[in-house]
Write a structure and sequence with these properties.
Helix 4 crosses helix 11. By secondary structure, the chain is of the alpha/beta class. The chain is built from 12 helices and 10 strands. The N terminus is likely disordered. The chain folds into 2 domains: 169 residues, D-Maltodextrin-Binding Protein, domain 2; 115 residues, Periplasmic binding protein-like II (D-Maltodextrin-Binding Protein, domain 2, 3-Layer(aba) Sandwich). Helices cover 45% and strands 16% of the residues. Belongs to the UPF0065 (bug) family. InterPro entries: BUG, Bug_dom1. Keywords: Signal. This is Tricarboxylate transporter.
Length: 327
């Protein structure tokens, strides 16, 4: 009888604990890690770094598969995520074209506030870069003088109309009163290579996209568009230091499609929190000039997206959509 009671008690305990264990959601198949930009750029580098850490630390029972969808300045990726509503096995690494592309391409049928916010991993930054061969350009003043003289012969490389670099280029044109020729490339890595090869004259690449060439002495930064100088670039002045009111950042957040299950959202949020807190991620942020003070998630991130959408609507209205798209 004593044995029977023990078995009954054990079975009861199992019955109580089993539902809790089963309730903890985990991926049941590979997770599509969509990147709304081309290979070699900042978003691509970040997504692949995070994917590598997930694999290295064995944080997921199923692999994360990076998939680049850069078409239409991220329109391809945004539409893809919209059409994956309710799918718990798709997440996307975003940038500011998350906001600008649906604003400019009104017929896209995408409202980013309907997506599922998971984690804001960093605020990325921008610097103005030229080839080190340009000995005549040593600072923002000499840069502006040279560009003003060259006019449309001055070629600025970027990652596409509506992308962050095209927005920042339009802001500079409006601020300094010149017009340049904007040349789009498939990704930030390609932009960086074309600057080194002198196929373009300047770019406002993210630090991560230029680091390899900067450290090799092929390119040089003239100004950073941040509130304060970043530790990675202590000798490069900010635009505000030079009396220019241009400050612009790029959000690096992970988001899911609309209508994800709450259990899946919680699992992904916990996963990216662990990645955010890791020594590897924090070291990357410091070395590559990203701001990673705290990970934003949930309703806070949803509110952040809403505010950024409004801010970019105002920014595009100010500089003009045609200044960004070139149409």
């Amino acid at each position: 009888m004593k044995t029977f009671k023990l078995l009954v008690a054990s079975a009861s305990a199992l019955a109580l604990t089993a539902p809790a264990a089963l309730a903890e959601w985990q991926p049941q198949k590979p997770v599509e890690f969509i990147i709304m930009a081309g290979t070699g750029g900042g978003a691509d580098q970040i997504a692949r770094l995070l994917q590598g850490l997930i694999q290295k630390k064995d944080l997921s029972p199923r692999p994360f598969i990076p998939i680049n969808k850069p078409g239409g300045s991220g329109a391809e990726a945004l539409r893809y995520l919209q059409d994956k509503a309710g799918d718990n096995h798709v997440v996307m690494m975003t940038l500011n074209s998350f906001y600008t592309t649906p604003i400019i391409q009104e017929d896209l049928g995408v409202d980013v506030t309907e997506f599922t916010p998971i984690a804001l991993m960093a605020m990325d930054t921008f610097l103005l870069w030229v080839n080190t061969d340009r000995e005549d350009i040593t600072d923002l003043e000499s840069f502006n003088a040279t560009v003003s003289e060259a006019g449309l012969d001055w070629k600025v490389g970027g990652t596409g109309s509506g992308q962050e670099d095209s927005v920042l280029t339009a802001m500079m044109e409006a601020e300094f009163g010149y017009d340049v020729t904007y040349i789009p490339f498939p990704g930030g890595g390609t932009v960086a290579k074309n600057l080194v090869g002198n196929q373009i004259d300047s770019t406002v690449n993210n630090p991560a996209e230029q680091m390899e060439f900067w450290r090799a002495g092929n390119t040089k930064p003239l100004v950073q568009f941040t509130a304060e100088r970043m530790p990675a670039f202590p000798d490069v002045p900010t635009a505000k230091e030079l009396g220019v009111e241009i400050e612009y950042y790029m959000q690096r957040s992970v988001n899911g499609p609309p209508d994800m299950d709450p259990e899946a959202v919680e699992w992904y949020t916990n996963l990216f929190q662990e990645l955010f807190d890791s020594e590897e991620w924090q070291s990357y942020c410091k070395s590559d000039g990203l701001t990673c003070d705290a990970m934003m998630k949930g309703e806070d991130l949803a509110t952040f997206h809403e505010n950024q959408k409004v801010a970019h609507e105002k920014l595009i209205a100010k500089v003009g959509a045609t200044a960004i798209t070139g149409e």
